[in-house]
Amino acid sequence: MNEPGLFQFGSKEQHYFPMWGTTEMCEALASCLTRHLAPDLPVLPENVLVVNGGVAAMEVLACCLLDPGDVLLTPSPCYTRIIVNFSERFKVNVVDVLLRDTNEISVGERSAFELNGDLLEDTIMEQKATGRVVKAFYLVNPNNPLGEVYSPQLVLQLMEVCHRHGLHFISDEAYAMSIYEPQTPFQSVLNLSPLPDPQKTHVIWSFSKDMNLAGIRIGALISQNKDLLHVVKNTSVYTAVPAIVQKAAASLLNDTVWLDEEFLPTHRQRLREAAHKTQNALISLGAKVQPAQAGFFLWANLRCFLPKVNHDEELALFKRFMAHKVYLTPGSEMRCADPGWFRIVFSSAPHVLEEGLSRIADTIKEL
């Protein structure tokens, strides 16, 4: 980002521009997303809208697709900004598709926190039985906080359920280029065909995670729904990204040799090294760690360190970690129904990660 000329201000940046994304930015995003997420089905620039971050993309969809009181479903444990972004201003009811730790409950042979079509369908029917209007389903894939990559077979199964019930399917793929286990297959919704309902299928991606550029505030909303695109364009003055920032970001994406051959491989290698280091450290302390393939975090079961398995004891352990100045997100803050789970973010500088793991160990030893 410090390359000479990357933020060079010209007369073009002096004037108003398409607030939903400059031509250069939309074309650069379409090219990048095609190379990395949709090699079989090229993303069209006219289906890409630029907004100021993934958060803005969620709010735009809340505004355009749902009315106050409507229901949006999302699997939990979850990234809780989903709840805030849809409910705070646009009053959408965000309801959990509740995933459970099956080591503690009896649900057949499912693995921990398994998502499937039957579970989604049951939740839809439960909400409809209360008289609520269910409008959309929001899937984060790869998942935050689980670090799991969902198979294309499962994604299509979920999309079929949504199609049967007339729901919009929103795929948040913020970590799509942050899959660090090399043998893990990932299929973006952008690369699936045929889609059960193309007009009700929407994808969100942003610079914050895969590009490590949360401060640049660029998100992308990709959809084939022309009516949705039209409405978002007409309200884009509220979500516009400065032209000079788009110019720099487009230049970055268009440097394909650096991005594809240097940055992203290094990004994934460092994530893999940090994930393995963190996992080994947690296991050595006696914790259980949910298998993960992507993202910046691990989902760890610290139940064995709780005197009693309940959310009060989980919060007490969280406070002990905080007393040692290390932050682990308690599962209850991510709407996890089963006590004792924590999300540990490992995407820090190596010396910071080392210190954080040391403080976790110190906390555990004092219990």
TrEMBL record:
Signal peptide: none annotated. This is Aminotransferase class I/classII large domain-containing protein. Belongs to the class-I pyridoxal-phosphate-dependent aminotransferase family. The keyword Transport does not apply. PANTHER family: AMINOTRANSFERASE CLASS I_CLASSII DOMAIN-CONTAINING PROTEIN, BIFUNCTIONAL ASPARTATE AMINOTRANSFERASE AND GLUTAMATE/ASPARTATE-PREPHENATE AMINOTRANSFERASE-RELATED. InterPro entries: Aminotransferase_I/II_large, Ethylene_sulfur-biosynth, NHTrfase_class1_PyrdxlP-BS, PyrdxlP-dep_Trfase, PyrdxlP-dep_Trfase_major, PyrdxlP-dep_Trfase_small. GO terms for biological process: amino acid metabolic process. GO terms for molecular function: pyridoxal phosphate binding; transaminase activity. Transmembrane segments: none annotated. Keywords: Pyridoxal phosphate. Residues 12-360 form the Aminotransferase class I/classII large domain. The keyword Signal does not apply.
